[in-house]
Amino acid sequence: MMSRRNNTNVPDFILMGLTDSEEIQLALFIIFLLIHLITVLGNVGMILIIRLDPQLHTPMYFFLTHLSFIDLSYSTVIIPKTLANLLTSNYISFRGCFTQMFFFVFLGAAECFLLSSMAYDRYVAICCPLHYPVTMSKRLCHALVTGPYMIGFIDSFVNVVCMSRLHFCESNVVHHFFCDTSPILSLSCTDTYDIEILIFIFAGFTLMVSLITISASYVFILSTILKINSTSGKQKAFSTCASHLLGVTIFYGTLIFTYLKPRKSYSLGRDQVASVFYTIVIPMLNPLIYSLRNKEVKNAFIRVMQRREYSR
């Protein structure tokens, strides 16, 4: 993953975290621990409900299973180390830092394109309902899931290989609570312009291509919904994609705010708040958004619980 030719006098990094106050650190530890527990329970619960209820074995919930898996992994990459830093040592090894960065970029890029796949699924369901079972075949569904993981891996691999070739010869203090690209780039004592441009291109490609796909899908969806005559029909059609649209808006809003800009505009406090939101809060919110607003998931949960009662 990392180049052997990397020359650095920095054996490890120091993650400064979110605050120096011990009282606030303790409060953040409790809050982040609770959020992580809710994230794990929510996403694992979503995966189990979809797996255990045959009525949810549809393309939409197949994608939702993988979204829950990515959110669970996303949270696990960031929160445990953050919790450890809030209570004990805030050191992270050079290799550990770049490993965290690799999985962070990999999962983030994969989620972008998975949300695109989910948008396409909603487009077919609403705009071409009669062809939906044929169009959204098992083969296509697996391709629409495998693609995001492959793109995420390539994006992350290029990002980490480029970053690992930098020279770190002075400060090893990372002004962030995890190993992200912007604060690590700022530590390099060599020219980072070419690497910044390359990372910006890959990040821009990931965000813009996936966002354009989602936007185009929803333009067609909205156009189809507006052609429906009955109010109840419009409401039913919109309800099938409302949760996805809300999740996309929150996720992409914070990502664009944080990453689609030059490093010179990097602001420590502002970007840390945005980072907390999409690395810690959003993985907790997604299962709530897709379950509390979804009658099928609620009914599936009831059926699973009833089957457990009957089996006793």
Structure description:
There is one protein chain. The protein has about 300 residues and is mainly α. The chain is about 75% helix and about 5% strand. It contains 10 helices and 3 strands, in the order E-H-H-E-H-H-H-E-H-H-H-H-H. The chain has helices spanning about 20-50, 60-85, 95-125, 130-135, 140-165, 180-185, 195-225, 230-260, 270-290, 295-310; strands at about 10-15, 90-95, 175. A 3-stranded mixed beta sheet has the order 2-1-3. It is globular and about 65 Å long. The termini are far apart. Mean pLDDT is about 85; it is low at about 1-5.
Question: Which key features would you list for this structure?
Answer:
mainly alpha, 10 helices, globular, 3-stranded mixed beta sheet, 76% helix
